[in-house]
């Protein structure tokens, strides 16, 4: 049987005209800065239009996304994708579990309901050292990877819409 496997996603031609919403949690500011730098580098290389928004914490990301996505759709200027960035570090209480689970769930629900490309770059880690290892562009570059995930999904959506 000759089955072909899909090829790995690759960086392709720029996505001219695509609007990407980038929402970052500022709770861990220095880590957020590194995540954003990684995401912006990837998005700028794809030559998309970027709209950045900052919110206090990870739980506010899905709410802000819903507000901004709806307003843009109502104005006839929809976004092609969303990149969510932030960091949740485990503490001594179960609050970590609630924030990590609910922010991810709400983002996935929003992305599925709106059929919007999502790159989820909200780190959920045990400590600050793990956060930095994942955030640094020279190491994990999770901000860049989240942007790449959103771009890959935008490319899929455009390809399917084109026929």
Descriptive labels:
single chain, 163 residues, alpha/beta, Rossmann fold, four-stranded parallel beta sheet, 5 helices, 4 strands, 50% helix, 20% strand
Protein architecture, described:
This protein has helices spanning 29-45, 60-74, 95-114, 128-135, 142-162, and strands at residues 19-25, 49-55, 81-89, 117-125. The protein has 163 residues and is of the alpha/beta class. It has a 4-stranded parallel sheet with strand order 2-1-3-4, with helices on both faces. The model has no long low-confidence stretch (mean pLDDT 93).
How much is the average pLDDT?
93
Strand content: 15-25%
CATH architecture of the domain at 33-145: 3-Layer(aba) Sandwich
The low-pLDDT segments are none
Quaternary assembly: single chain
Give the CATH level 1 class of the domain at 33-145: Alpha Beta
The SSE order reads EHEHEHEHH
Rg (CA only): 16 Å
What is the CATH topology descriptor of the domain at 33-145?
Answer: Rossmann fold
Biggest beta-sheet profile: 4 strands, parallel
* Annotation field: number of helices: 5
| Widest sheet, order of strands | 2-1-3-4
- Gross morphology is globular
Class by alpha and beta content:
alpha/beta
Estimated helix fraction? 40-55%
């Amino acid at each position: 049987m000759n089955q072909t496997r899909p090829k790995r996603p690759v960086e392709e031609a720029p996505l001219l005209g695509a609007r990407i919403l980038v929402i970052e949690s500022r709770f861990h500011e220095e880590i957020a800065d590194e995540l954003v730098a990684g995401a912006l580098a990837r998005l700028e290389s794809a030559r998309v239009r970027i709209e950045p928004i900052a919110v206090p914490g990870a739980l506010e990301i899905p709410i802000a996304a819903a507000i901004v996505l709806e307003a843009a759709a109502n104005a006839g200027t929809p976004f092609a994708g969303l990149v969510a960035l932030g960091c949740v570090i485990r503490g001594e209480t179960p609050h970590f579990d609630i924030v990590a689970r609910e922010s991810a769930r709400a983002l996935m629900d929003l992305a599925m309901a709106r059929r919007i490309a999502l790159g989820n770059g909200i780190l959920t880690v045990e400590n600050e050292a793990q956060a930095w290892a994942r955030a640094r562009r020279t190491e994990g570059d999770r901000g860049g990877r989240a942007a790449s995930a959103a771009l890959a999904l935008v490319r899929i959506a455009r390809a399917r819409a084109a026929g």
